[in-house]
């Protein structure tokens, strides 16, 4: 992103992580944007309240640093006039055959192996392992130390918790929640919440909830 003015939407915890990610790649952050800023600066980076303070110029680019998948999706429509950019931490290992979408971040010590496909606005958190031929949908968040074995697919908006293990070939639906430490041995339908070892479904989002997430 040379010669671009880089902005981060979200000045809370994940925003700070993204700012340090960009610094590790020798990128300069112009400012945070936040709807309810608690401070005017974070370590010398200014924090602006809403977009009013930013000029939408040809050299501006933005990354959405919001951990909540649904809010991140809605924000992508809100900021659609900005080009989105992707950032990969220098300690991450990403196969040259992997494909990574716009607005996606790959954090410290993560691994993305051969022919894996990551959608747009995905969070691959610290020390995550994405094995060969995995397919990760848009707006997915995979939490620290989770491991997805080969040929796993994850639908849009799903949250994979800390330390989750998924065996090869499992298909996880859209807008699911996979609780921390879960071991997934079977496919998961859309909207399910799964916990435990082995993973078991404890509840579902309603069809209305899933539809609402899909269109908003």
Automatic annotation (TrEMBL):
The UniProt record lists the keyword Transferase: yes
Site feature (Increases basicity of active site His) residues: 133
Keywords on record: Transferase
The organism's place on the tree of life at top rank: Bacteria
Residues covered by the PglD N-terminal domain: 5-74
Example GO molecular function: transferase activity
Amino-acid positions noted as binding substrate in the UniProt annotation, renumbered to this chain: 12-14, 67
Active-site residues, as the UniProt record annotates them: 132 (proton acceptor)
Pfam family, one: PglD_N
Residues that bind acetyl-CoA: 141
Family: Belongs to the transferase hexapeptide repeat family.
PANTHER family hit by this protein: ACETYLTRANSFERASE, UDP-N-ACETYLBACILLOSAMINE N-ACETYLTRANSFERASE
Protein name per its UniProtKB record: Acetyltransferase
Annotated source species: Flavobacterium restrictum
């Amino acid at each position: 992103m040379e010669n671009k003015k880089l902005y981060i939407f979200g000045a809370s915890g994940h925003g700070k992580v993204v700012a340090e990610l960009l610094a590790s790649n020798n990128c300069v952050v112009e400012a945070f944007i936040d709807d309810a800023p608690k401070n005017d600066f974070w370590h010398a980076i200014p924090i602006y309240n809403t977009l009013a303070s930013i000029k939408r110029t040809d050299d501006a680019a933005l990354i959405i640093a919001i951990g909540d998948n649904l809010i991140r999706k809605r924000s992508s429509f809100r900021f659609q006039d900005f080009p989105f950019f992707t950032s990969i931490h220098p300690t991450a290992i990403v196969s040259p055959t992997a494909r990574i979408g716009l607005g996606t971040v790959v954090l410290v010590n993560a691994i993305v192996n051969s022919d894996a496909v990551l959608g747009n606005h995905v969070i691959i958190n610290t020390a995550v392992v994405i094995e060969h031929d995995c397919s990760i949908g848009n707006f997915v968040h995979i939490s620290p130390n989770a491991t997805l074995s080969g040929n796993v697919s994850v639908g849009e908006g799903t949250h994979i918790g800390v330390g989750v293990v998924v065996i090869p070939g499992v298909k996880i639906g859209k807008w699911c929640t996979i609780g921390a430490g879960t071991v997934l041995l079977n496919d998961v339908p859309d909207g399910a919440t799964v916990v435990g070892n082995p993973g078991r479904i404890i509840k579902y989002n309603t069809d209305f909830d899933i539809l609402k997430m899909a269109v908003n």
